[in-house]
Design goal:
- 0% of the residues lie in helices and 50% in strands.
- The strands form two sheets. Strands 2, 4, 5, 6, 9, 10 and 11 form a seven-stranded mixed beta sheet that branches. A four-stranded antiparallel beta sheet has the order 1-3-8-7, with no helix packed on it.
- It is globular and about 40 Å long.
Length: 124
């Protein structure tokens, strides 16, 4: 069974940092664009960041630009989300996802594979 497994979530104070990781099992996603989404309680899931397969070209939601950085290590089949200067509005369950294409995209319906999420809580 193909799975995407997120790690690195936790509780952090406002202004702090966390680094999320997403490593798949069951297959390689090194040839697919990858992304991060998040969902806060009572809200719809929203796009956070996405990265191309080869060029490393990236897309970010306006709310995280300048604070979050998505990166990938294809040799390790892993994608990362470095989150700096966190604020309470960033509190959510964070999901990693993989498309079946090579180009970064903010559209959730283009992602075919999803992880189960990791909780990020930012306190005041």
């Amino acid at each position: 069974q193909v799975q995407l497994v997120e790690s690195g979530g936790g509780l952090v104070q406002a202004g702090g940092s966390l680094r999320l990781s997403c490593a798949p099992s069951g297959r390689s996603f090194s040839n697919y664009a990858r992304g991060w989404f998040r969902q806060a309680p009572g809200k719809e899931r929203e796009f956070v960041a996405s990265i191309n397969v080869n060029s490393g070209a990236t897309i970010y939601a306006d709310s995280v630009k300048g604070r979050f950085t998505i990166s990938r290590d294809n040799a390790k089949n892993t994608v990362y989300l470095q989150m700096n200067n966190l604020n309470p509005e960033d509190t959510a369950t964070y999901y990693c996802a993989a498309t079946r294409g090579m180009v970064a995209t903010p559209r959730s319906y283009e992602y075919a594979y999803w992880g189960r999420g990791t909780q990020v809580t930012v306190s005041f």
